[in-house]
Design brief:
- By secondary structure, the protein is of the alpha+beta class.
- It has 2 domains: about 1-15 and about 210-240; about 25-200.
- It is about 20% helix and about 40% strand.
- The chain contains 3 helices and 16 strands.
- The strands form 3 sheets. An 8-stranded antiparallel β-sheet has the order 2-3-7-15-9-10-11-12. Strands 1, 6, 8, 13, 14 and 16 form a 6-stranded antiparallel β-sheet that branches. A two-stranded antiparallel ribbon has the order 4-5.
- The chain is globular, with a radius of gyration of 23 Å.
């Protein structure tokens, strides 16, 4: 009976974190259409989602504006409409300077968590030399280059593509905003500031019922410890009586 009680308690704890949905790769086509993978997408007020192609690479951006159909300064693309885990995302056209007279371009990602709170990640394409693939990723001020899965070299005829992992770990998000920040000039004239496009988003939807309220997990674990402590005390008393 005691073993069954403990098993039930542990099973209850695991159920707090269960996800009843599926992983969905969301393409630039889905993003530009405004929906995909159970999520909705919108540009900043008064703007329209679109796509841009350079060479054989296409990504989602914002029509017109400083980014020229990419996602530029003062523009944003936001994913919302369901709770989800961010497994990764792929960006295109984030350059570091010499290819098109750019700054060291910066992409910013702002996550709003389903249980409250926010987190901000910043990705910078750093210029070290012509054709380099150096980037820098910080999440809430902490360097996390381990979450950069790959970055391709860029030139005047080859675009930059950067693949990122789970920027916000196992935190459940209610929304995610993609923006651009002004970058610093490293070489050349730098007449173009940060802009880029979103190739895809890898997300796993999570039902609202699967997201514990703040404090729920802590209270459950305290209860689990109390149950375990009570069982241990009973066993100890039983041994003392033998």
């Amino acid at each position: 009976m005691k073993t069954q009680l403990m098993a039930a308690a542990i099973g209850g704890a695991m159920s707090l974190f269960s996800a009843s949905a599926f992983a969905t790769p969301i393409s630039y086509t889905d993003i530009a259409s405004g929906s995909g993978g159970g999520l909705s997408f919108s540009a900043n007020a008064g703007s329209e989602l679109t796509t841009r192609t350079i060479g054989n690479v296409t990504g989602a951006g914002v029509r017109g504006g400083p980014g020229g159909d990419e996602l530029g300064i003062g523009e944003s693309i936001t994913a919302y409409g369901a709770n989800f885990l961010l497994n990764g995302t792929s960006l295109a056209f984030l350059f570091d300077g010499p290819e098109y007279g750019d700054t060291q371009e910066i992409a910013r990602f702002t996550a709003t968590f389903a249980n409250g709170g926010t987190s901000v990640a910043r990705l910078t394409n750093i210029y070290s030399s012509d054709g380099d693939s150096d980037v820098s990723l910080f999440v809430d001020g902490t360097e996390r280059n381990d979450l950069v899965n790959s970055a391709t070299e860029a030139s005047s005829d080859v675009v930059s593509q950067i693949v990122l992992g789970a920027l916000f770990g196992d935190n459940v998000l209610s929304s995610l905003s993609f923006e651009a920040e002004p970058g610093e000039c490293a070489t050349g004239n730098c007449y173009s500031d940060s802009d880029y496009a979103i190739e895809n988003i890898d997300a796993t939807r999570v039902d609202a019922s699967d997201v514990p309220e703040p404090g729920t997990v802590a209270m459950f674990m305290i209860g689990l410890l109390l149950v375990g402590g009570g069982l241990f005390a009973r066993r100890s008393r039983g041994r003392d009586l033998i």
